[in-house]
């Protein structure tokens, strides 16, 4: 995905019959793995799939990723830089109403930006480290000037990252004022949330009145709820369940996606501090077997770098294949012939447990003992970025993967990857708005990640969205949001 700001789509939101007529007053039930520490306040010290569902439906962003992965304007109407790319003028969409009834404007943007950049414990502020918390100036009610710490070319794409929701200036952690398509009627973390359609919403409205979000402990419980008719749709199910659900009358929407499960090794501590150990672990993997067995054939081999969905050409590196003999040799050279490691996961996403277990089997061929430890979401997140070996997930284009997963301060840099050459090239990429230079820099970054990165990226998977026949209008989405993007979706 090219990250040049000029690629942002600026067409107005589509109007639908549901939008103009108020739509069906029915209900839709969504099932998702949830946590007892989930919050409605978006600048939280974690980001779970269940929180993303809530934020996506109650809050909006300045820009966002469209279902095809392109950047489009949302609350912003335009973003214009100066020649140095260090001052950006953001024009806001007029007539947007907050759930409180107030008009969304420049004061709300300035409040949101300062809040997310200064909130204690909010890990994703590092993704916007080029933004000065006090550098936003109100020009008028619908115009904000961003005075940056340094030039930044892919400005619009940076704000499309899903964590950067905008809230009203009167918001508190206990009561958030948003602009999204639903308001919150009730919320019990780990149990249920009830959302009601906001009929003053500025964009394409859902064609139903109430969204019931039910939180489950694991993927198996979601599968059972679908079979039993307790829920209408889920963001995902185990890949092994897809065909049996279809045979039972549940539909499954299949989307090409940017979903990447990575086995992240902490590069700052032993044994993974040694690049030979990291390469050995990558050579252990039989990617074809993982695609076929762990993902039920709904995946294809990847090559240990992010950005496989990028529109830029692939880097000039060989496709890594399983080589047990070479892996053993590297481990012996590193003094780790009898390596024993623990791999942790919460199993919150399809394929996580299957990937972990199959990798452990493959590792044993090289004399490596991998103990898989499954834990609940809250326990895993309580020590986020502390685990030596963990299954992580990326569901975003390369521009966000770099800042979030691959730079030292990234909120999801579970590998603690901190490579001086990589960091320098990333800085050059961000300082440019030239698409050709961006692609060249992305290829260099991918090659470094392939050579010495801390992530084993075995496959890229499709996104499977199971839903009952009463749900109509779900759309394919490369970011895996098909189950909870409801513009134009109806039930009945």
Automatic annotation (TrEMBL):
Gene Ontology molecular-function annotations: peptide transmembrane transporter activity
- Residue limits of the Solute-binding protein family domain? 71-391
Give the CDD domains listed for this entry: PBP2_NikA_DppA_OppA_like_17
Q: Where is the signal peptide?
A: none
Q: Which GO terms describe its cellular component?
A: ATP-binding cassette (ABC) transporter complex; periplasmic space
An example GO biological process term is: peptide transport
Q: Which InterPro entries does the record cross-reference, listed alphabetically?
A: Peptide/Ni-bd, SBP_5, SBP_5_dom
Q: Where is this region: Disordered?
A: 1-24
Which protein is depicted?
Answer: Peptide/nickel transport system substrate-binding protein
| Annotated organism of origin | Sphaerisporangium krabiense
Taxonomic lineage is: Bacteria, Bacillati, Actinomycetota, Actinomycetes, Streptosporangiales
């Amino acid at each position: 995905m090219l990250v040049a700001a000029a690629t942002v789509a600026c067409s107005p939101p589509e109007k639908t019959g549901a939008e103009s007529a108020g739509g069906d007053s029915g209900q839709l039930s969504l099932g998702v793995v949830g946590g007892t520490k989930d919050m409605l306040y978006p600048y939280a010290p974690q980001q779970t799939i269940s929180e993303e569902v809530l934020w996506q439906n109650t809050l909006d962003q300045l820009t966002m990723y469209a279902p095809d992965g392109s950047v489009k304007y949302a609350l912003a109407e335009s973003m214009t830089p100066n020649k140095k790319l260090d001052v950006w003028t953001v024009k806001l969409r007029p007539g947007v109403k907050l759930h409180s009834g107030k008009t969304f404007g420049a004061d709300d943007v300035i409040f949101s930006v300062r809040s997310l950049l200064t909130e204690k414990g909010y890990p994703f502020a590092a993704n916007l480290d080029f933004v000065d918390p006090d550098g936003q100036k109100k020009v008028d009610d619908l115009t904000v000037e961003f005075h940056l710490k340094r030039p930044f070319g892919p400005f619009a794409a940076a704000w499309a990252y899903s964590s950067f929701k905008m809230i009203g200036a009167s918001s508190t952690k206990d009561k958030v004022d948003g602009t999204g398509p639903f308001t919150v009627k009730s919320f019990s973390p780990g149990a249920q949330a009830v959302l009601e359609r906001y009929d003053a919403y500025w964009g394409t409205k859902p064609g139903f009145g109430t969204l019931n979000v039910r939180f489950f402990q694991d993927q198996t419980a979601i599968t059972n709820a679908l079979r039993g008719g307790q829920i209408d749709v889920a963001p995902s199910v185990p890949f092994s369940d897809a065909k049996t659900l279809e045979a039972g009358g549940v539909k499954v929407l299949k989307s090409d996606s940017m979903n990447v499960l990575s086995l992240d090794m902490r590069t700052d501590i032993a044994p993974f501090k040694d690049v030979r150990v990291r390469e050995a672990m990558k050579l252990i993997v039989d990617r074809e077997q993982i695609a076929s067995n762990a993902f039920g054939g709904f995946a294809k081999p990847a090559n240990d770098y992010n950005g496989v969905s990028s529109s830029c050409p692939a880097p000039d590196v060989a496709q890594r294949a399983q080589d047990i003999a070479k892996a053993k040799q590297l481990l012996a050279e590193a003094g780790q012939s009898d390596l024993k490691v623990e791999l942790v996961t919460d199993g919150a996403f399809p394929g996580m447990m299957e990937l972990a277990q199959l990798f452990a089997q493959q590792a044993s061929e090289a004399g490596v003992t991998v103990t898989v430890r499954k834990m609940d979401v809250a326990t895993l997140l309580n020590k986020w970025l502390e685990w030596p070996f963990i299954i992580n997930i990326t569901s975003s284009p390369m521009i966000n993967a770099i800042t979030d997963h691959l730079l030292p301060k990234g909120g999801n840099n579970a590998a603690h990857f901190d490579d001086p050459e990589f960091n320098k090239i990333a800085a050059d990429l961000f300082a440019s708005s030239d698409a050709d230079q961006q692609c060249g820099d992305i290829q260099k970054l991918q090659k470094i990640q392939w050579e010495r990165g801390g992530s084993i990226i075995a496959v890229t998977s499709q996104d499977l969205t199971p839903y009952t026949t009463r749900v109509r209008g779900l759309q394919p989405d490369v970011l895996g949001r098909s189950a909870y993007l409801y513009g134009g979706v109806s039930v009945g």
